[in-house]
Write a structure and sequence with these properties.
29% strand; 10-stranded parallel beta sheet; UDP N-Acetylglucosamine Acyltransferase, domain 1; alpha/beta; homotrimer; 335 residues; 17% helix; Udp-n-acetylmuramoylalanyl-d-glutamate--2,6- Diaminopimelate Ligase, Chain: A, domain 1; 12-stranded mixed beta sheet
Chain lengths: 335, 335, 335
């Protein structure tokens, strides 16, 4: 890609030789000849100068350099925009590996890549520019929009709906049966899980995360949300837009997570509650009731961060002053 | 299915047109013409009446309706019984996908379905009416009883024994090596894991759950138990009958979980302890000692629920009254 | 194997018939004729004597027996050394299943076994004596050293480096994208994940564990470390040598775990901190700051074990004496 073309794309200004071609993007440590990299500060710019990179994205105020610079407001953001353009250009010529088992009734869009040992069952629709990597299994009646990317060994149960530009990392399971049972006279009966999962645009889901389908209705993941590895999303959960969920979180059945919620790792949310919009949740929290919009919570059970920290401080204080407290109680003789 | 046949099966009484055929079952929201649904209360019955459903399972006391009703004691239970009968009828004609790699010595029962890219190694026995979906790997000497259902990408390590009517969801791993090491002069040596896993009748296991095989003896999951997604069952664990384990729980080596135990999500149980029968365990509990029958416990470390709640209340109280407590200590001058 | 050969290997002394051949190793409960087993105490020796085993590894001080004994310092350690020798002898004749999809540019070492439905992409190098079981997917440019064993359905993303004698259990994902996003004007953009994962000699990783690749640099697992099932290792984490990590732990981005750290289950470590060498960490701990060498910590948030236990004791005491404390506050009338 011509450097001028790139500068236009990321709204940057070139400083130095503008007659340079970019062949790839990389971090400073691994840059090869022809690579573009980025430097957020002067130190990084110094490292970039002694690397093989030909061009550096940097801030509007950094010093001049022996390398060609493109000055932008946010070099990190510009780097990722550039990366995405490069990556998109490289992907997805039409290809179906001969070992793939694809039912006759499957409809494939344009520029779809399907790798070895993939299974796609009856009545599945795969949108344009999809990439389905090795070992994925897509059960019947699933619908995938455009630019979806399933990494190896992903499984979609029947009737799953993926909208556009969704990325599922390896081992993700979407649409598995919810954990719904009915007890009757000492026996446990499985309640049929007849619902589906709908995943909206630009969602990315981390490796080995599992998302159960609705029991009668549907499980929803809102547009732009990002879920990390090894999370568990139970049946009928509704996750809003632009939610960030770190690894190993678990959301129990039918709970609702508002837009823009941010969740650290290993959080647990019980069933049938609502977490408002813009809530931020500390690591390992256990949430056992509804949470209002804009709250910042932490702890198990979770309270406002300020309250949780105060309680911890008081317990530390009481431990330090245990002898004194103990003496007072003894003197008073009260019980 | 004839409605009369169905009513007989679920011990219900028909009210209205009994000359109706049921083609499928569904929730009220998604009901299509010919479907059977269920309504636990009058509101739901109202919704069912304006849906396309032809027949509604409802209580003995609900009002009359324009739809054909079948009155039963527990409509939800009746619905699932009806569903299971329908589902069983539809499943399992004999079928082996040509891409499946099945060793010559494998014994397949009647009406077994084996999907694409399955691998089954030497001396495996698969019982009647089994369904082995795409990408499953069954290592040598495994024995599967009747009506087992392995969803896509399940792995059974060698010598695993599944009894009858077992459901393993996608990505379940059964029989992986336990976490057993011996330290000697600064090095860590793996202790050989030579045991097996035995899973008894009617167990269902959620997506991406892992169950390690015994180191020398065996890991057991008792009849009727249900384990949710992303749980970890270590080597030599014994899980009783009709245990309910929610998502992301972990049971360390050689611990014993009694019959009818109910466990919320993200519970941890240390190694070599025994949890009695009928114990109920709150979410995120950490269990570090034996628990008696019929206890209700919560917390990390786990105590009786009442005790844990009292401790939380006292800490809240102390936090509210911190200034007063602090003043008393200061006045006394004790340390 | 001749018993004399074995005794030499494990530095043991034979007592009884030394004209015996060992055909396999097993635990006492499952011993068959020709098997070697081990007995750490007199009780176990008694059980071994009534089993079909032909030879028993036991301590230097245990009583004489009707079975052939090999006396060693540590029977358990001797057993595993013997097992490993047996196991190695049995493994890995060269074999590639015809269904495997292996790119032309792949380089395979000597005595490599590749099972059904494996995919190996361009420019992968597989070292001698590797075992790649059914359904594994190895993306382009991965390098595997000697004696690596990938159990079924493992996925390696592109550029992953495995050194020698590495065991990955089923469902392990190595090299998935890290959880790195940049927010800009309400939108969440994925930051490109261009780094790699390097796993050093003799590492073993449990079923369904996920290890993300570095965002720009690399994620490292040090030699001899053992990671249990369902753990999450985020991008750019550095794990030292001989670390023991029990199941369901999660390490957030760029954190460093020192050599010989031991971690119980369900521990969470936040991002960008350093845990020193030889630290031992209790189950369900939440670690939110740097930890010095040789510390023993527990709790969420984690403190020194002694401190955490003291706090628990004080809270129990305060709960028992709540009425007294409450009375004193009321009498004083302070607030």
């Amino acid at each position: 890609m011509k450097i001028k073309e790139l500068a236009l794309l990321i709204e940057g200004t070139i400083e130095g030789d503008d007659n340079v071609d970019i062949t790839d993007l990389s971090g400073i440590e691994t840059a090869r000849l022809g690579d573009l990299t980025f430097a957020m500060d002067e130190d990084k710019l110094g490292l970039a100068e002694i690397s093989q990179t030909v061009c550096v994205l940097t801030t509007k105020t950094s010093r001049r350099s022996t390398k060609t610079l493109i000055r932008v407001n946010n070099p990190k953001l510009a780097f990722l925009i550039a990366y995405n353009v490069f990556h998109e250009k490289l992907s997805a010529e039409s290809f179906v590996h001969p070992s793939a088992a694809i039912a006759d009734s499957v409809i494939l869009g344009k520029n779809v890549r399907i790798d070895a040992h993939v299974s796609i069952e009856d009545n599945v629709v795969i949108g344009d520019h999809a990439t389905i990597e090795g070992g994925c299994v897509i059960k019947k009646n699933c619908k995938l929009g455009e630019h979806c990317h399933l990494h190896p060994n992903v499984v979609l149960y029947e009737n799953t709906i993926l909208k556009n530009r969704i990325v599922l990392h390896s081992g993700v399971i979407v649409g598995s049966d919810g954990f719904g049972y009915v007890r009757d006279r000492g026996e446990i009966y499985k309640f049929p899980q007849l619902g589906i999962v709908v995943i909206e645009d630009r969602v990315e889901i981390g490796a080995n995360t599992t998302i159960d389908r609705g029991s009668l209705g549907c499980t929803m993941i809102g547009a732009g949300s990002k879920i990390d590895n090894l999370c568990h999303i139970a049946h009928n959960v509704k996750i809003g837009k632009n939610v960030i969920m770190a690894a190993q979180c678990g959301i129990a059945g039918s709970s609702v997570i508002g837009d823009n919620v941010t969740m650290s790792g290993q959080v647990a949310v019980i069933d049938n509650i609502t977490i408002g919009q813009n809530v931020s949740i500390g690591g390992q929290s256990g949430i056992i009731g509804n949470i209002e919009d804009n709250a910042a919570i932490w702890g198990s059970p979770a309270r406002e961060v300020k309250q949780t920290k105060k309680q911890m401080a008081v317990l530390s204080w009481a431990t330090k002053n245990f002898n004194a407290l103990s003496k007072i109680i003894k003197e008073k003789g009260v019980t």
